[in-house]
Design brief:
Elements (H helix, E strand, L loop, with lengths): L1 H11 L13 H17 L20 E6 L6 H9 L1 H4 L3 E6 L3 H10 L4 E5 H9 L5 E9 L5 E5 L15 E4 L5 H12 L8 E4 L2 H10 L4 E5 L2 H9 L2 E5 L9 E8 H6 L1 H17 L3 H11 L4 H4 L13 H13 L15
Parallel strand pairs: 1-2, 1-3, 6-7, 6-8
Antiparallel strand pairs: 3-10, 4-10, 5-8, 5-9
Subcellular location: Periplasm
Protein name: ABC-type nitrate/sulfonate/bicarbonate transport system, periplasmic component
Pfam families: NMT1_2 (PF13379)
């Protein structure tokens, strides 16, 4: 190491362009010795330390308060924590529980959260209506068939999508991606979604609400789909990831424009760590290894979860498709360009 450093410094004090070694006098050797430590981090080029790069500049804020929901979508967050990806980037993530994607937006506005997980519908609607000025940090989850299901109990009178009309249907948050998915899928099946009584409740409460008949159906996601099937024999009434909603972008991560402007290195470090874990989540075993903890999924259920996709980049064209779908289903009247929300 010392020899390598000595040789690199000898090169650096030679010709600036050629980086050739030169014969040094004693004063120059003394100068080299005094300067050696600082050159490790401040000099670039000429192959310093056999090609090593200078250290990444520090982040503005070491702790990031992140709003999360205990569902399968956020598995990469826990993978990143488990594998030390955030630590590698110089940030610590403090998890804050929220009920749904829309619930995290006020936290961004009032400064209680730095970044939040949430559904794209809520993010886009908040931006369009001027409720918040958001910047999109990373994608989280994209839909696949059989993982975003309207379900009910085996003895329910609700048997088809048309039967949902006029019924109470549980969604974790009103006017979010769950409601949009139900509306779009019912419309595709020729059923009237305008008479559905959407009832807001947390995902963990939906199974019991179905059993008590407080609601007659619920839009469930994993791990609650598999749990409801096993524990109460829940049956699907409608797969919402079909038709115009095929490959529907479900959720992502956003921050406020203010936080992004004041903490660009922090946001970038957070995103790099998360994207790394998003790629890992392409391996089902990686997801299974963490959901038994944060989502309290029984290991026997973890092995059969119906998973969506964990994208490593934000697809603006797909998000524009979400805007179109929102307008077509009466959930948005204003214009919003997802491309202008990118960092």
């Amino acid at each position: 190491m010392l020899l390598s450093l000595h040789w690199s410094v000898k090169k650096l004090v030679g010709h600036a362009g050629a980086c050739h070694p030169v014969r040094m006098t004693r004063p120059r050797r003394a100068f080299v010795g005094a300067l050696a430590a600082t050159l490790i981090t401040t000099v670039s080029g000429c192959g310093l330390l056999s090609g090593e790069q200078p250290a990444t500049p520090g982040v503005e804020q070491a702790k990031v308060r992140l709003g999360v929901v205990p569902i399968i979508d956020i598995a990469p967050v826990h993978i990143a924590i488990k594998k030390g990806y955030f630590r590698d980037e110089g940030v610590e993530v403090e998890l804050k529980s929220i009920q749904g994607g829309a619930a995290g937006i006020p936290g961004l506005v009032n400064g209680e959260l730095d970044v939040t997980f949430g559904n794209w519908v809520s993010f886009l609607a908040a931006q369009a209506k001027g409720v918040a000025d958001l910047k999109l940090v990373a994608d989280a989850y994209r839909g696949r068939p059989d993982m975003f299901l309207v379900m009910t109990t085996p003895d329910s009178a609700v048997k088809t999508p048309a039967d949902l009309a006029g019924r109470k249907v549980g969604v974790n948050t009103r006017a979010n991606v769950a409601e949009l998915a139900v509306r779009a899928a019912m419309k595709a099946k020729g059923a009237d979604a305008n008479t559905v009584q959407f009832t807001e409740m947390a995902f963990p409460d939906m199974q019991a609400a179905l059993q008590r008949k407080d609601i007659e159906a619920a839009l469930l996601v994993e791990p609650f789909i598999t749990r409801a099937v096993r524990e109460i024999g829940a049956v699907p009434v409608l797969d919402t990831i079909t038709g115009e909603a095929t490959d529907l972008p479900i959720a992502g991560y956003a921050t406020s424009a203010k936080f992004a402007q004041q903490n660009p290195k922090t946001v970038d470090a957070f995103r790099r760590a998360l994207v790394r874990a998003q790629r890992d989540a392409g391996d089902t075993a990686e997801v299974q290894s963490v959901v038994t903890g944060y989502a309290k999924v029984d290991p026997s259920i973890a092995g059969v979860l119906r998973l969506g996709l964990y994208p490593s980049g934000i697809d603006v064209e797909r998000l524009k498709g979400v805007v179109t779908l929102m307008k077509a289903n009466g959930m948005l009247t204003e214009d919003v360009d997802p491309g202008r929300m990118l960092l």
